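Memo to structure team: turn this sequence into structure tokens by end of day. - J.P.
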Amino acid sequence: MTFLFTLLSFAVALLLSIMGTVVYSQVKHVAPNLTFAYRHIALPFAITVGAMVLVLSLGMEVRNYRQRKALEGIERVS
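Reply from structure team:
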């Protein structure tokens, strides 16, 4: 799941950054620098989103483990 969200965020960030770079180059009348969109916008954004999704997924798994463990303890007592 983390990989899918990271890949999706990279694709969306890359699309938006390429569009922004093209618009900026049209306004300034210069050649678009698309490597800037890859290296400085889309890749850091995807890494950040991937790290956030990983931390959130780990938190959810820990919470589910603790809840399942508590419910199993309640079942044993009953």
